[in-house]
Amino acid sequence: MVGGGLSAGGGGTQFEAKITPIVIMSCIMAATGGLMFGYDVGVSGGVTSMNDFLKKFFPVAVPLFLSEIAPTRIRGGLNILFQLNVTIGILFANVVNYGTAMIKGGWGWRVSLGLAGIPAILLTVGALLVVDTPNSLIERGHLDEGKVVLKRIRGIDNVEPEYLELVEASRVAKQVKHPFRNLLKRRNRSQLIIAVALQIFQQFTGINAIMFYAPVLFDTLGFKNDASLYSAVITGAVNVISTVVSIYSVDKVGRRFLLLEAGVQMFLSQSVIAVILGLKVKDHTTDLHSGYAIFVVIMVCTFVSGFAWSWGPLGWLIPSETFPLETRSAGQSVTVCVNLLFTFVIAQAFLSMLCHFKFGIFLFFSGWVLVMSFFVFFLLPETKNVPIEEMTEKVWKQHWLWKRFMDDDDEVVVEIGKVDGAAKKNGHSNGFNHTSQL
Question: How much is the pLDDT for 127?
Answer without folding.
Answer: 75
